[in-house]
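Dear support,

I submitted the protein below through the web form. The confirmation email said the job was done, but the results page showed an empty box. After a refresh the structure appeared. I'm attaching both so you can tell me whether what I see now is the final result or a partial one.
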Amino acid sequence: MDAIDQSRLASTFIEDPEVQLWEVLVPCQFNDGRPVRTRYHRIWDAKVRAISGGLTILKPAIGHWVSPEGSLFKERMIPVRIACTRAQALEIAEMTACHYDQEATFAHLVSTEVLVHKRVGKSARETGALGKPAPKRKVRSGPPRRKYKPSDAVGFGLGEEAY
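What the results page shows now:
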């Protein structure tokens, strides 16, 4: 890469050494067992956006943790990644504990380096580089496909403890 390409490339990246990538685990249910509704999560999402400017919501996962008293808890949670400063991550963790009425909130550092590439010039769609739009996919006809249920795993020796 020549000097011109390097300077152009450097100008398209935004670097802030204070910004890191954090992950916060958001509960899917309250401590009393009631599920957290999507609209309640959206309120939390808006609060996080107000603090950090954005978030990435990943698919729910199941976490296991042992309380100080020795009780095992298994619960669904939503990993959410947030590019923010450490101070903002602490603010988000505290807000999360209050918003969901949790005894504790788990947040961890995913990456110490965050790069944001800012496109310079027109997009591929604007320049016509993408060509014609892809043809529409055909809709599958016939009976609906059967969805997998946890009870299906029993025949394979997995049973309910797999969940």
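Response: this is the final, complete result; the empty box was a page-load delay. The domain at 17-117 is CATH 3.30.70.120 (Alpha-Beta Plaits).
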